[in-house]
Amino acid sequence: MEPNETHVVGTDEERMSKKNEASDLVVETHYVFLVHGWLGNDLEMLYIESAFKKAIASHEGSNGAKLVVHCTVNNNGRTSDGIRKGGTRLAKEVEDFIRSDNTARFIRDKDCASERHVTISFVGNSLGGLYSRYAISCLPTLLEPPECINDTAMEQSRIVIHRNLFCTTATPHLGVASHTYLPIPRFAERVIGNTLSKTGKDLFRLTENLQNDTIYQMSTSYEKFLMPLSQFQKRIAYINAFGTDFQVPTSTAAFISQKSAYPHHVIFPPLEDNETSIKVKKKSFVVALVSTEQNLEVLKEELDQNVERRGNDDLEMSKKLDALGW
């Protein structure tokens, strides 16, 4: 059974303005889900898990909240059947994990609170970033208790989910069609994509109709995909700017279109007239830090998605993703 889609009441402006409400509430648990990439498994995320826990150990518990980091496993050995199925499995795992963790806490602590507030964050590596983007479109903002629970107090308890941080590392946000390490003709992309099963077809965007193009839909459909992603308090995309990533070149990881005129603000290296510039450690591998501002008008702009592929679809995806604010 697939998780329910997100339904949030209120206007778009109200949903945007409520993103930071979690900071004003008593959040009991911060959940961080680490999502591996193509042909990967949860073990490849263990270093990030340990580094994550170590980095925030000194801050944990300062406000009474608990940090739970989970390396996802539902897509272990199952990364070839497409973004949709992988994202749906991830959403189910996230939902089940949060329910299970809160059920265990209830039984252990006899905590009868009628409403628990939690936050969720995602760190998706490569294909895991696309899985995560799809999964959040399936996740509800409110979790009811499992039907198997017989405890009356827990039956009346619900979990309110607030979206915190969404982070990707070397994720092919625009797919890999026309975004390969070395330029190859379209017929070669078709051959390669078809040999990589459904996931390859998704990444090389082999469907000619944009309505059936998973990556295009994820990058342009506001209600289904962009609105849920906009509800996170912060979005970060880490990109290899050295041009040495064979699988995920800079242009698709940073959703860059050469035709785009969407404003980008450089906050590192510092510019003389840039008041928002920040300092970075001298030995850091960081080449640049760039931000974009959220633009609801661009996000909500309707596009004709029932036509065959156009020449400016990369530009449309790039503008919409930039308009989320990173």
Describe the fold and architecture.
The protein is of the alpha/beta class. It is 33% helix and 16% strand. The protein is built from 12 helices and 8 strands. It has helices at residues 12-17, 46-56, 83-109, 127-135, 152-155, 186-195, 197-203, 214-220, 222-230, 250-253, 296-300, 313-322; strands spanning 27-35, 66-71, 115-125, 142-143, 158-169, 234-238, 265-268, 289-291. Helix 3 packs across helix 4, helix 6 (186-195) runs antiparallel to helix 7 (197-203) and helix 8 (214-220) crosses helix 9. The two termini are 33 Å apart. Mean pLDDT is 85; it is low at 1-20.
Shape designation: globular
Quick check: average pLDDT? 85
Query: What order do the SSEs take from the amino end to the carboxyl end, as H and E?
Result: HEHEHEHEHEHHHHEHEEHH
How many β-strand stretches?
Answer: 8
Low-confidence segments, ≥5 residues, pLDDT <50?
A: 1-20
Q: Can you count the helices?
A: 12
Radius of gyration: 20 Å
Structural class: alpha/beta
Share of residues in strands:
15-25%
Biggest sheet statistics: 6 strands, mixed
Tell me the span between the first and last alpha carbons. Answer: 33 Å
**How much helicity do the residues have?**
25-40%
